[in-house]
């Protein structure tokens, strides 16, 4: 077998080694979401050449789909410190670190200005979908010389043509937004679900804005027990206040929908805004504005005229032998059932996936949603993200596979470690923080934003640099020590 970077997790590329066919090629970053763009900024900072391939017509294309949603993380937890420094050099005035952005704010105030910086803009290809990644000239079975060969990245370009590019390494930050989980309790689409798609919206519709007409005066079932479900439930109940006749049913698989209703206490959550969702939801269930159907395992979906029915078994407690047949009828369904990763682009690569979550195998136990919430996932890096294929790594939302606990602060820490590994900075790559990264990144960003705001009041902006080489030597860049200091929110 070829050298396995599971055993040598930092040897994505050895800068002191003999130059190989990979040397001099760009590092391809798949996806221009917040984590992909952060990866590009970190690569530039380390003097490597990024090439960001984005399937959508704009950066942050997935976030654009949920731009109306307010994040539960404040700005200080949603910015990558290296990217902030890059922006700061051009006179960007950052947001209030304690305010909660919407998805739209994240795009307009952060991702779009970042992507517009000349150093990044000319390294981003929009409307360019990666359809496959392989090792040049070797299929998955062949080992000799594998780690010396470039990657072959097959793309469908903006004109619809298939083309092959070569890459030194591939950082996959393509997210999971376009692959929602189905309604079926078994993880498969429920019988009839695909045929009923006209009455099902997967994800987070803009109930109070763009999609209002679809829900006004109608009965909607929201399926799912996470924070996305809570967001949609609160939105439909607000609409209910304005438009009588609007009804909302909340269907969940478990008999006791925890942690959302179980907590019902903003103070009990490490992110107060997220805890507030649970509190508000619990109150609406309590006063009957939202009808809760718990223990509901959906097996069948049917369209009947203008209505949709969800059918399945309802378990009233933990005893799985005690079930009754249940049918719930509505006009619309919002499926807030989470997301799963699509590893189809990497079928010719050697991946080691955790069997339940489909994350990297070593990362799985650290992010298991049965054990961890977002805030309790420990900091991690290349050691936990590595696959047996040297040079291919999955970061960001997709790195968590099916686990719903991903936070941007974690993604930024991942790319810091991955890029350090890529340049052979073993100390930077191996560093492990004690505890979650949220507090440290918040402290770093807060300091950067406040310093920048003070400075910009005194002096005009400089012109944009091509490459932020000075950043590595700069003061407040989120060094290993910064990331491990827990001094700030939440
Ligand atoms: C509604 C919602 C609220 C959230 N709130 C928070 C919060 O408050 N705090 C927090 O920390 N996190 C939050 N998250 C979680 C997470 O931080 C976001 O999902 C974030 O967008 C993940 O960033 P990413 O860069 O990994 O992926 P994405 O933002 O999903 O970006 C992936 C990019 O890759 C592109 N792409 C996909 N496939 C391909 C391909 N084959 N070729 C090329 N390009 C491709 C997509 O078009 C997209 O632009 C939230 C998520 C959701 C859905």
Keywords, separated by commas or semicolons:
16 helices, FAD/NAD(P)-binding domain, alpha/beta, 5-stranded parallel sheet, 2 domains, single chain, binds flavin-adenine dinucleotide, 17% strand, disordered C terminus, 490 residues
Structure description:
With 490 residues, this protein is an alpha/beta fold. The chain has 2 domains: 27-178 and 340-456, FAD/NAD(P)-binding domain (3-Layer(bba) Sandwich), CATH 3.50.50; 194-335, 3-Layer(bba) Sandwich (FAD/NAD(P)-binding domain), CATH 3.50.50. The chain contains 16 helices and 16 strands. Strand 13 (307-315) and strand 14 form a beta hairpin. The radius of gyration is 23 Å and the shape is globular. Flavin-adenine dinucleotide is lined by residues 30-36, 53-56, 60-63, 66, 69, 71-73, 78, 129-130, 173-175, 177, 204, 228, 345, 396-397, 406-408, 411.
